[in-house]
Amino acid sequence: MDPQALDRDALTLSDLRKTVGREMWVSRWFTVDQALIDRHAESSGDRQFIHVDPVRAKAESPFGGTIAHGFLTLSLLPAMSNDALPPRKGVRMTLDYGFDRVRFLAPVRCNSRVRGRFSLVHLDDQTPSELTLTWSVTVEIEGGLKPVLAATWITRQYLEREA
């Protein structure tokens, strides 16, 4: 199934089931700049110099400057999925259920651009109004030879109740 052929306003559950096992969606590029890294450092309390001190990171780290926190890269997944995945009518809300696996595979240097690739690997009907979706997610860096993050992400969709 070609993702471009899907109506982004009316993706049905049947259409979604047809995508299981296929890489279907890729987000736009997101820039990871120092301001974003600094905001994450502030909110997470992780102010290690490799993230927040460009001068020291250039002099003392093997990265040539600051790098994003792995958890910052992970925290971009909702924005990437909102950008890449088509909405579905009849979904009341979607919640994060958790991760079965997360790996930080390479550093994200300051001012790099990253994007997410999403494949639905499993869809489970928990109840008539609740679905559990398991996603394989890869975050790649522009010009990089390997992904910076690989994860198995589990979400829950709660469907509108029929009157």
TrEMBL record:
InterPro entries: HotDog_dom_sf (IPR029069), MaoC-like_dom (IPR002539), NodN-like (IPR039375). It comes from Acuticoccus sediminis. Residues 18-126 form the MaoC-like domain. PANTHER family: MAOC-LIKE DEHYDRATASE DOMAIN-CONTAINING PROTEIN. The lineage of its organism: Bacteria, Pseudomonadati, Pseudomonadota, Alphaproteobacteria, Hyphomicrobiales. This is Nodulation protein NodN. It holds the Pfam family MaoC_dehydratas.
